[in-house]
Design goal:
The chain is α+β, with helices and mostly antiparallel strands and 140 residues long. Helix content is 16%, strand content 51%. It contains two helices and eight strands. A four-stranded antiparallel sheet has the order 1-2-3-4, with no helix packed on it. Strands 5-6-7-8 form a four-stranded antiparallel sheet, with no helix packed on it. Strand 3 and strand 4 form a beta hairpin. It is globular, with a radius of gyration of 18 Å.
Length: 140
């Protein structure tokens, strides 16, 4: 009986800890501590790093999250985008300049998993860009 009680308490404390995960705040990109995928189609190494937001502001309340990203555009002007997530795994959609993106975000323990599919069209051809992100808070 003691073992069962301990396991139940351990599971309860893990669930309570996961419920307290809050990504709210203002974040600045640290390229030295970040991993970026290789990009193809002539963009060269580090292409994803050039596309990453330099600053993000995250507002999280219960199971809703809003992420505002600021990055420099090709013309040098600051571009601001906003994405809304439902952290219960419900799909959210956003319309952008070049198409629609569908997001599914879900907290699994202390890690936020985000799957996104962007639907685009270029020169009469339709295509999709699929991304997978894992967010977690670490010391430092």
């Amino acid at each position: 009986m003691r073992v069962l009680t301990f396991i139940t308490m351990l599971m309860l404390s893990a669930a309570l800890f996961a419920a307290d995960v809050d990504f709210s705040g203002t974040w600045t990109l640290n390229k030295d501590k970040s991993e970026f995928p290789e990009m193809s189609q002539g963009r060269g190494r580090g292409g994803a790093a050039r596309l990453a937001a330099a600053n993000m502001t995250i507002m999280q309340k219960k199971n809703k999250m809003t992420v505002e990203r600021k990055r420099a555009g090709r013309d040098g002007e600051e571009r601001v985008t906003e994405t809304k997530f439902d952290l219960n795994g419900k799909m959210t959609k956003e319309k952008g300049r070049r198409g629609t993106t569908e997001h599914v975000a879900q907290l699994n323990g202390i890690v936020l998993h985000v799957e996104s599919v962007r639907f685009m069209e270029r020169q009469g051809q339709e295509f999709e860009i699929v991304t997978t992100q894992k967010w977690s808070l670490v010391d430092g």
